[in-house]
């Protein structure tokens, strides 16, 4: 997720609307929100992803990082 963060966020958000259970998209959207400083939204997205894939290491790592940054 380098480059145009706003564009990436829009495209990933569209992916989550088309496929609400797409864990990688939920995680990446959480990363975008965290980079914008919206940790509450990022955490909500990571938790949503974990409800689908409870042991996804990338999501778990990002959730921990976001919670530590609060």
Polypeptide structure, described:
- The chain is mainly α.
- Helix content is 79%, strand content 0%.
- Helix 1 (5-18) packs antiparallel against helix 2 (23-36), helix 2 packs parallel to helix 4 (57-69) and helix 3 (39-52) packs antiparallel against helix 4 (57-69).
- The longest helix has 14 residues, at 5-18.
- It is globular.
- The chain starts with a helix and ends with a helix.
- The mean pLDDT is 95.
Structural class call reads: mainly alpha
Helical coverage, percent range: over 70%
Task: Give the amount of beta strand, in percent.
Answer: under 5%
* pLDDT < 50 runs, ≥5 residues: none
End-to-end Cα distance: 22 Å
Note the total helix count.
Answer: 4
How many runs of DSSP E, i.e. beta strands? Answer: 0
| Biggest sheet record | none
**Estimated radius of gyration:** 11 Å
The SSE string, one letter per element, is HHHH
Average pLDDT number: 95
Query: Shape from CA axes?
Result: globular
Descriptive terms for the model:
70 residues; mainly alpha; 79% helix; globular
Outline:
With 70 residues, this protein is an all-alpha fold. Helix content is 79%, strand content 0%.
